[in-house]
Amino acid sequence: MYKLIVHIKGWKFNQKFFRNKKFERINKEFKTAARNTLKKTARTNIRISQADLEGLKLITAQEGVGYQTLISGILHKVASGQLQIQT
Q1: How would you classify residue 9: left for phi > 0, otherwise alpha for psi between -120 and 50, otherwise beta?
Q2: What are the residue boundaries of the structural domains of the chain, listed by start?
Q3: SS3 (DSSP) at 72
Q4: Are 65 and 71 spatial neighbours (Cβ–Cβ below 8 Å)?
Q5: Given 4, 40, 74, 82, which residue has the most CB atoms within 10 angstroms?
Q6: pLDDT tens readout for residues 16-74
Q7: How far apart are CA 59 and CA 73, in angstroms?
Q8: What region does 15 belong to: left with phi over 0, alpha with psi -120 to 50, or beta?
């Protein structure tokens, strides 16, 4: 039998912790908050060069994500101030 032990930034959790009702409730709240934060509620169209689009598709194919997901993530980071544009 294998024993599950998870390390998160110096904290050590075992299987008993993850079966705890309080953990399940908090985990559900975090999942709901994450889902609501990332909901896509608006559409937009942008025009970019074919070369840039091909470059994005190449990068995302290597990373295993969609190019629209990457573009959306970058725009979100810029809009939320997590990524600064250098001029």
Answers
A1: left
A2: 5-37, 43-87
A3: helix
A4: no
A5: 74
A6: 555 667 767 777 887 777 777 767 778 889 999 999 999 999 988 888 888 988 888 88
A7: 14
A8: alpha
